[in-house]
Amino acid sequence: MTLDASRVILGTYGYLYIDGQWQTNINQLTAQVEVQKKELVLAGDGWVRHKRGAMKGTGSMSGFKVTSEMLQRGFQKFEIITKLDDPEAYGYERIRLTNVMADKLQLANWKAGEEVKEEVSFTFEGYELLDPIVAS
Question: Does the reported pTM lie above 0.85?
Answer without folding.
Answer: yes
